[in-house]
TrEMBL record:
Natural source organism: Parachaetomium inaequale
Protein name as catalogued: Kinase-like domain-containing protein
Residue ranges annotated for the Aminoglycoside phosphotransferase domain, each copy included: 73-282
Transcription regulation is among the record's keywords: no
Superkingdom of origin: Eukaryota
SUPFAM superfamilies, A to Z: Protein kinase-like (PK-like) (SSF56112)
Biological classification of the source: Eukaryota, Fungi, Dikarya, Ascomycota, Pezizomycotina
UniProt-recorded Gene Ontology molecular function terms: kinase activity
Length: 298
Protein backbone atom coordinates (compact mmCIF):
# COMPACT_ATOMS: atom_id res chain seq x y z
CA UNK A 1 0.00 0.00 0.00
CA UNK A 2 1.24 3.48 -0.85
CA UNK A 3 2.28 5.76 1.97
CA UNK A 4 2.92 9.48 1.79
CA UNK A 5 6.60 10.11 1.11
CA UNK A 6 8.76 12.28 3.29
CA UNK A 7 9.73 15.55 1.63
CA UNK A 8 12.01 16.03 -0.15
CA UNK A 9 11.60 12.65 -1.85
CA UNK A 10 14.41 10.71 -3.50
CA UNK A 11 13.97 7.18 -4.86
CA UNK A 12 16.35 4.52 -3.52
CA UNK A 13 19.68 4.64 -5.41
CA UNK A 14 19.26 1.10 -6.75
CA UNK A 15 16.14 2.23 -8.66
CA UNK A 16 17.89 5.10 -10.42
CA UNK A 17 19.15 4.76 -14.01
CA UNK A 18 22.06 7.08 -13.17
CA UNK A 19 23.04 9.93 -10.83
CA UNK A 20 20.20 12.37 -10.24
CA UNK A 21 20.69 15.71 -12.03
CA UNK A 22 21.55 18.76 -9.97
CA UNK A 23 19.51 21.95 -10.05
CA UNK A 24 22.32 23.58 -12.06
CA UNK A 25 22.22 20.79 -14.65
CA UNK A 26 18.44 21.04 -14.91
CA UNK A 27 18.50 24.80 -15.41
CA UNK A 28 21.26 24.49 -17.99
CA UNK A 29 19.35 22.01 -20.15
CA UNK A 30 18.13 23.44 -23.46
CA UNK A 31 16.39 20.20 -24.51
CA UNK A 32 12.77 21.11 -23.92
CA UNK A 33 10.19 18.32 -24.09
CA UNK A 34 7.28 20.62 -23.29
CA UNK A 35 6.83 24.34 -23.90
CA UNK A 36 4.29 25.44 -21.31
CA UNK A 37 5.94 28.69 -20.31
CA UNK A 38 6.17 28.71 -16.53
CA UNK A 39 6.16 24.88 -16.28
CA UNK A 40 8.84 23.64 -18.68
CA UNK A 41 9.77 19.98 -18.94
CA UNK A 42 13.38 19.40 -19.99
CA UNK A 43 15.44 16.36 -20.83
CA UNK A 44 18.58 16.01 -18.70
CA UNK A 45 21.01 13.37 -19.92
CA UNK A 46 19.33 10.40 -21.57
CA UNK A 47 17.16 9.20 -18.69
CA UNK A 48 15.56 12.09 -16.86
CA UNK A 49 12.65 14.36 -17.71
CA UNK A 50 12.34 17.22 -15.21
CA UNK A 51 9.33 19.43 -14.70
CA UNK A 52 9.90 22.66 -12.79
CA UNK A 53 8.76 26.26 -12.54
CA UNK A 54 6.63 28.68 -10.56
CA UNK A 55 3.46 26.74 -11.45
CA UNK A 56 4.91 23.31 -10.66
CA UNK A 57 3.63 21.72 -7.46
CA UNK A 58 5.20 18.97 -5.38
CA UNK A 59 1.65 17.61 -5.12
CA UNK A 60 1.86 16.53 -8.77
CA UNK A 61 4.90 14.40 -7.99
CA UNK A 62 3.14 12.90 -4.98
CA UNK A 63 0.09 12.04 -7.09
CA UNK A 64 2.17 10.41 -9.80
CA UNK A 65 4.16 8.43 -7.24
CA UNK A 66 0.89 7.37 -5.58
CA UNK A 67 -0.42 5.95 -8.88
CA UNK A 68 2.95 4.31 -9.55
CA UNK A 69 2.88 2.58 -6.16
CA UNK A 70 -0.84 1.73 -6.10
CA UNK A 71 -1.39 0.34 -9.59
CA UNK A 72 0.23 -1.24 -12.61
CA UNK A 73 -0.81 1.72 -14.77
CA UNK A 74 2.13 2.87 -16.90
CA UNK A 75 3.22 6.32 -15.73
CA UNK A 76 6.70 7.89 -15.86
CA UNK A 77 8.62 6.61 -12.86
CA UNK A 78 9.14 9.32 -10.24
CA UNK A 79 12.71 9.55 -9.06
CA UNK A 80 12.63 12.72 -6.95
CA UNK A 81 10.69 15.83 -6.05
CA UNK A 82 12.09 18.69 -4.07
CA UNK A 83 12.37 22.48 -3.92
CA UNK A 84 15.46 24.43 -4.90
CA UNK A 85 16.75 27.93 -5.42
CA UNK A 86 16.59 29.45 -8.89
CA UNK A 87 18.32 32.72 -9.82
CA UNK A 88 15.86 35.57 -10.18
CA UNK A 89 13.30 34.24 -7.71
CA UNK A 90 13.04 35.11 -4.01
CA UNK A 91 11.27 31.82 -3.24
CA UNK A 92 12.04 28.17 -3.85
CA UNK A 93 10.91 26.46 -7.07
CA UNK A 94 9.53 22.91 -7.18
CA UNK A 95 11.24 20.22 -9.26
CA UNK A 96 9.86 16.80 -10.27
CA UNK A 97 12.47 14.39 -11.66
CA UNK A 98 10.97 11.49 -13.57
CA UNK A 99 11.60 8.89 -16.22
CA UNK A 100 12.01 10.13 -19.77
CA UNK A 101 9.48 8.39 -22.03
CA UNK A 102 10.61 8.16 -25.67
CA UNK A 103 7.89 8.37 -28.28
CA UNK A 104 5.23 10.88 -29.23
CA UNK A 105 1.90 11.97 -27.82
CA UNK A 106 -1.22 10.15 -28.89
CA UNK A 107 -2.56 13.52 -30.03
CA UNK A 108 0.19 13.83 -32.64
CA UNK A 109 0.15 10.19 -33.68
CA UNK A 110 -3.58 9.46 -33.78
CA UNK A 111 -4.33 10.31 -37.40
CA UNK A 112 -1.37 8.20 -38.61
CA UNK A 113 -2.56 5.03 -36.85
CA UNK A 114 -4.44 2.13 -38.39
CA UNK A 115 -7.92 1.20 -37.20
CA UNK A 116 -6.55 -1.88 -35.41
CA UNK A 117 -3.82 0.17 -33.68
CA UNK A 118 -6.43 2.67 -32.49
CA UNK A 119 -8.58 -0.16 -31.20
CA UNK A 120 -5.63 -1.62 -29.28
CA UNK A 121 -4.83 1.75 -27.70
CA UNK A 122 -8.45 2.25 -26.65
CA UNK A 123 -8.39 -1.20 -25.04
CA UNK A 124 -5.20 -0.35 -23.14
CA UNK A 125 -6.61 2.95 -21.92
CA UNK A 126 -9.85 1.33 -20.79
CA UNK A 127 -7.93 -1.17 -18.66
CA UNK A 128 -5.81 1.59 -17.14
CA UNK A 129 -8.78 3.82 -16.35
CA UNK A 130 -10.69 0.91 -14.79
CA UNK A 131 -7.67 0.15 -12.61
CA UNK A 132 -7.37 3.80 -11.59
CA UNK A 133 -11.01 3.77 -10.46
CA UNK A 134 -10.44 0.56 -8.52
CA UNK A 135 -7.96 2.11 -6.05
CA UNK A 136 -9.74 1.96 -2.66
CA UNK A 137 -11.14 5.39 -1.92
CA UNK A 138 -10.51 7.17 1.39
CA UNK A 139 -13.98 8.70 0.99
CA UNK A 140 -13.12 12.39 0.76
CA UNK A 141 -12.90 14.63 -2.33
CA UNK A 142 -9.59 16.42 -2.86
CA UNK A 143 -5.93 16.02 -3.65
CA UNK A 144 -3.84 12.99 -2.75
CA UNK A 145 -3.02 12.65 0.97
CA UNK A 146 -5.89 15.01 1.89
CA UNK A 147 -4.41 17.98 0.10
CA UNK A 148 -6.30 20.72 -1.73
CA UNK A 149 -7.89 20.28 -5.13
CA UNK A 150 -5.63 21.48 -7.93
CA UNK A 151 -8.11 21.17 -10.81
CA UNK A 152 -8.46 24.14 -13.16
CA UNK A 153 -12.04 24.71 -11.94
CA UNK A 154 -10.66 25.79 -8.57
CA UNK A 155 -7.94 28.17 -9.79
CA UNK A 156 -7.90 31.95 -9.68
CA UNK A 157 -8.11 33.46 -13.19
CA UNK A 158 -5.58 36.12 -12.16
CA UNK A 159 -2.60 33.81 -11.63
CA UNK A 160 -3.74 30.22 -12.19
CA UNK A 161 -3.09 29.26 -8.56
CA UNK A 162 -5.67 27.44 -6.40
CA UNK A 163 -8.08 29.64 -4.44
CA UNK A 164 -6.79 29.93 -0.85
CA UNK A 165 -10.19 29.36 0.78
CA UNK A 166 -10.52 25.76 2.06
CA UNK A 167 -14.29 25.89 1.48
CA UNK A 168 -13.41 26.04 -2.23
CA UNK A 169 -10.31 23.89 -2.70
CA UNK A 170 -10.99 21.46 0.14
CA UNK A 171 -10.34 18.71 0.83
CA UNK A 172 -14.08 18.06 1.15
CA UNK A 173 -15.67 15.34 3.23
CA UNK A 174 -18.77 15.13 1.02
CA UNK A 175 -19.70 15.62 -2.62
CA UNK A 176 -22.14 18.30 -1.50
CA UNK A 177 -19.24 20.33 -0.08
CA UNK A 178 -17.24 19.93 -3.29
CA UNK A 179 -20.20 21.06 -5.39
CA UNK A 180 -20.63 24.08 -3.14
CA UNK A 181 -16.95 24.82 -3.81
CA UNK A 182 -17.64 24.64 -7.55
CA UNK A 183 -20.48 27.10 -7.13
CA UNK A 184 -18.29 29.49 -5.10
CA UNK A 185 -15.80 29.52 -7.99
CA UNK A 186 -18.66 30.44 -10.28
CA UNK A 187 -19.72 33.18 -7.87
CA UNK A 188 -16.20 34.65 -8.01
CA UNK A 189 -16.20 34.52 -11.81
CA UNK A 190 -19.49 36.42 -11.83
CA UNK A 191 -17.77 39.52 -10.47
CA UNK A 192 -17.49 40.40 -14.15
CA UNK A 193 -21.23 39.85 -14.69
CA UNK A 194 -22.81 42.66 -16.73
CA UNK A 195 -26.49 42.00 -16.09
CA UNK A 196 -26.82 44.02 -12.90
CA UNK A 197 -26.64 42.86 -9.24
CA UNK A 198 -30.24 41.60 -8.93
CA UNK A 199 -30.07 39.54 -12.12
CA UNK A 200 -26.62 38.26 -11.09
CA UNK A 201 -27.97 36.91 -7.79
CA UNK A 202 -30.93 35.23 -9.49
CA UNK A 203 -28.61 33.66 -12.06
CA UNK A 204 -26.26 32.39 -9.34
CA UNK A 205 -29.18 30.93 -7.36
CA UNK A 206 -30.32 29.15 -10.53
CA UNK A 207 -26.90 27.54 -10.95
CA UNK A 208 -26.61 26.60 -7.28
CA UNK A 209 -29.97 24.83 -7.25
CA UNK A 210 -29.20 22.77 -10.32
CA UNK A 211 -25.62 21.95 -9.33
CA UNK A 212 -26.81 20.35 -6.10
CA UNK A 213 -29.59 18.55 -7.94
CA UNK A 214 -27.42 17.04 -10.67
CA UNK A 215 -24.05 16.55 -8.98
CA UNK A 216 -25.02 14.17 -6.19
CA UNK A 217 -24.74 10.47 -5.43
CA UNK A 218 -21.24 10.06 -6.89
CA UNK A 219 -18.57 8.36 -4.76
CA UNK A 220 -14.99 9.60 -4.92
CA UNK A 221 -12.59 7.77 -7.24
CA UNK A 222 -9.02 8.53 -8.18
CA UNK A 223 -9.10 10.68 -11.29
CA UNK A 224 -6.48 11.96 -13.72
CA UNK A 225 -8.61 15.09 -14.31
CA UNK A 226 -6.86 16.19 -17.51
CA UNK A 227 -7.30 13.13 -19.69
CA UNK A 228 -6.96 13.73 -23.42
CA UNK A 229 -4.62 12.42 -26.18
CA UNK A 230 -2.04 15.12 -25.49
CA UNK A 231 -1.43 13.56 -22.08
CA UNK A 232 -0.92 10.04 -23.39
CA UNK A 233 2.53 9.07 -24.64
CA UNK A 234 2.73 6.40 -27.34
CA UNK A 235 5.89 4.33 -27.15
CA UNK A 236 7.49 2.94 -30.35
CA UNK A 237 6.14 -0.53 -29.44
CA UNK A 238 2.54 0.74 -29.37
CA UNK A 239 2.11 0.76 -25.59
CA UNK A 240 0.81 3.88 -23.86
CA UNK A 241 2.01 5.86 -20.83
CA UNK A 242 -0.26 8.37 -19.11
CA UNK A 243 1.50 11.62 -18.20
CA UNK A 244 0.77 14.99 -16.53
CA UNK A 245 -0.89 14.19 -13.20
CA UNK A 246 -1.00 17.85 -12.14
CA UNK A 247 -4.77 18.00 -11.58
CA UNK A 248 -5.31 14.46 -10.30
CA UNK A 249 -6.97 13.49 -7.04
CA UNK A 250 -10.15 12.10 -5.53
CA UNK A 251 -13.16 13.38 -7.47
CA UNK A 252 -16.77 12.29 -8.06
CA UNK A 253 -17.14 9.47 -10.60
CA UNK A 254 -18.47 11.81 -13.30
CA UNK A 255 -15.45 14.15 -13.25
CA UNK A 256 -13.12 12.31 -15.67
CA UNK A 257 -15.76 11.79 -18.34
CA UNK A 258 -17.13 15.32 -18.17
CA UNK A 259 -13.70 16.95 -18.21
CA UNK A 260 -12.62 14.78 -21.13
CA UNK A 261 -15.73 15.70 -23.11
CA UNK A 262 -14.99 19.39 -22.51
CA UNK A 263 -11.51 18.89 -24.01
CA UNK A 264 -12.70 17.23 -27.24
CA UNK A 265 -11.67 19.14 -30.36
CA UNK A 266 -13.95 17.18 -32.75
CA UNK A 267 -11.19 16.97 -35.36
CA UNK A 268 -10.68 13.18 -35.41
CA UNK A 269 -12.41 9.88 -34.71
CA UNK A 270 -10.97 9.93 -31.18
CA UNK A 271 -14.34 11.54 -30.44
CA UNK A 272 -16.06 8.30 -31.47
CA UNK A 273 -13.81 5.95 -29.48
CA UNK A 274 -13.31 7.83 -26.21
CA UNK A 275 -16.74 6.58 -25.11
CA UNK A 276 -15.22 3.11 -24.93
CA UNK A 277 -12.51 4.32 -22.55
CA UNK A 278 -14.70 6.03 -19.94
CA UNK A 279 -18.15 5.42 -18.47
CA UNK A 280 -20.60 8.04 -19.66
CA UNK A 281 -22.38 10.63 -17.51
CA UNK A 282 -24.55 12.46 -20.01
CA UNK A 283 -26.75 14.46 -17.61
CA UNK A 284 -23.82 15.65 -15.55
CA UNK A 285 -21.80 16.51 -18.67
CA UNK A 286 -24.14 19.27 -19.81
CA UNK A 287 -23.97 21.15 -16.53
CA UNK A 288 -20.25 20.49 -16.12
CA UNK A 289 -19.37 21.82 -19.56
CA UNK A 290 -21.61 24.84 -19.01
CA UNK A 291 -19.89 25.43 -15.67
CA UNK A 292 -16.41 25.49 -17.25
CA UNK A 293 -17.49 27.62 -20.17
CA UNK A 294 -19.08 30.12 -17.78
CA UNK A 295 -16.00 30.32 -15.56
CA UNK A 296 -13.43 30.59 -18.33
CA UNK A 297 -15.36 32.82 -20.73
CA UNK A 298 -17.50 34.99 -18.50
Amino acid sequence: MATRPTLPYYAPPELLPGPLPTVAEILASKRRISHEGQTPVVLVGEHYAVKYGVRTSIQEGESQLFVQQSTSIPVPKVYAFFQGDVPGYNFKISFIVMEYIPGTTLERAWDTLSASAKRDIVSQLRRHMDELRSIPSPGYYGGVWRQQIRDRDFERPSDGLPYPEPEITGPHETEEQLVEGMWRCLEKAFTRYEGGPARRERHLAYFRRHYHSVFKGHPSVFTHANFFPGNVMLRPDGSVVIIDWEHSGWYPTFWEYCGTMWLLDHESDWDELVYEVLDEYEAEMGWFVNHRETIFHN
